[in-house]
Amino acid sequence: MVWKDLLVERRSKETLNALFFFGLLLLFVFQFALGPDRERLAGTLPGLLWLGFILSGLLGLGRTFVVERENDCWEGLLLAPGDKSAIYVGKLAGNLLLMLVIETILLVLFGFFFNLDLTHVLPALAVVIALGTVALAAVGTLFAAMTAQVRARELLFPVLLLPVEAPVLLATVKATEAVLLGEPLGSVAHWLKLLAAADVVYIAVGVLTFDFVMEG
Amino acid sequence: MRSLLGGVTLVGLAAGLVMGFAIAPREATQGNVQRIMYLHVPSVWVAYLAFAVVLVASIAYLVRRAEAADRLAHASAEVGVLFTGLTIATGSIWGKPTWGTWWTWDARLTTVSILFVMYLGYLLLRGMIEDRERGARFAAVLGIVAAFNIPLVHFSVYWWRTLHQPPSLMKPGPGTMPGIIVAALLVNFAAFTLLYAYFVTRRARVLRLEAEAEA
To answer: So what's the ipTM on this one?
Structure first.
């Protein structure tokens, strides 16, 4: 399964460039949409940040299994010996890595364009981002496997994923908001617990149901 | 059997209307507007019941591969979305005169609207897959994910904001509602539950006939 993981990573480089460019464009769009007013930008920053994360995540995650189809590796995946849930865990790890890289880049870009000094809040922010990203990737990987086998997948994937991720978005945006204001992690402990619970539930459901997604 | 269920449901709904709109007293501060509670609260109960049935039927389908379980999940999800919509509609009609607005991002409004879009997505997924067996499998997986997501949605939205009046039923301590209002509400609960059972059995039957016609 480590082999599978490496394969995913090697491939993800091609998506990485496109996603980096996409993130940059998003920043431009945000800036154009909201105007140059720094005050207003600061107020919407946590939301914008996560909007950027989830939009690039949608693009990246959605491709997870489409690539397998395009490269005719689907049957290979199905025939692979061992437990199907190993494929899920491998894909999840690959997606997680990809998303974290993109998010780091986006974060640096945000800091640069909006003139933010993030260094002192970075550890707390990293915790929130890590917990939120696991939740996004866990459901995203499962749904990507489903929608890759369906027509209109580009449409269906976000339509299925966004409502399910609503609690994760609420939690991450609120927690990010508090962290950016310099509050300690303890003040957002309830959000972190919710995110941790979401991570556990999503991964458990993903591992248990992935077999059924990959049957045919 | 089916027509019996339909008949009993009809009687129950009529009794519920009479109880709610004629027998139960006028509420002191909100006036007659409050009577919409007799439709609003049972609607949301049916929605949650329906989604719970989706969960159970989805698990049953994945374990047993019985098409009846899949049809039950499908029918229940449709009825659940319908009643979630009804909950939002009656809530809006209730909210306008009492809160002064059709819509607000209050905790429970938000929760119910997230459930609404989540299960709309579920129905969308079903509609987009031609292959019956694959559609059933994917829908079952989504039905399970969505159901486990409900508590997360609930808590996240609750912490996010709340304005809604606290639940008036099922809370610890002596109830604040007079017996007659509770009775009227219970009659409506029973009637709506029967209505749910009626809708689901009818819908599941139609789904079965469709499948047979195709085969």
So the answer is: 0.85
